[in-house]
Structures are given as C-alpha cells and as structure tokens.
Amino acid sequence: LRLLEGELDDMPIDPPTQSEGVYVTTELKYATWYAALRGHGDLYQVEPIGEMQESEEDNFPSYVVQSAKVLRILRRSVWLDRRERRAIMRDWQKADKRAALA
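-> structure tokens emitted (102 positions)
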C-alpha cells in the first residue's frame, strides 16, 4: 500500500508490463479497454514495426513489438460506459475459460 500513497483513488491499477516495446492487438475491444484505462486515452490503428512477440499476460491475442507506426486514430478520449465495460469483461471471462480448458 505504501506504493499507492499520494495516488488518486480512481487511478487504474494494472500489472507490470514490458517496457522495451509497444503492445498491439488484433482485438478491438481489448485495445479499447486499455485505452480507457489510461485515463481517456486514444485508440489507434497501427502497423507493427519489428518482430512481433506474443504476449502471455492475457488471454486475448496481443503482441509486443519494438515500435508501431500510427495509421489512423480510431477513437479519441476513450471512456467506457457500464454496458461497454460489462461486454468486454464477459468476453475476457470467456477467453480466460477457454485458456483454462486448453
């Protein structure tokens, strides 16, 4: 808890991620979730640069690449309402169950 001293109560808490690259995914909902976690972050369509390494942090298809070229902005200042959050969480739970059965 000492690490959270001085942080705002509504700040997102996310597990440590790899810092030597950029995360990309083929799943729009998954990307939208993480854009929203960044506090009204923007959602981009990108072109990966360099070798894509599969990330094993979640059960959605995601990859770490050296960098990525922004092709276009898909959505500015992403904020998820309750309906959107629930839909993404349901998909996430299904992906976790499929992975557990594999």
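The first strand starts at residue 22 and ends at 25.
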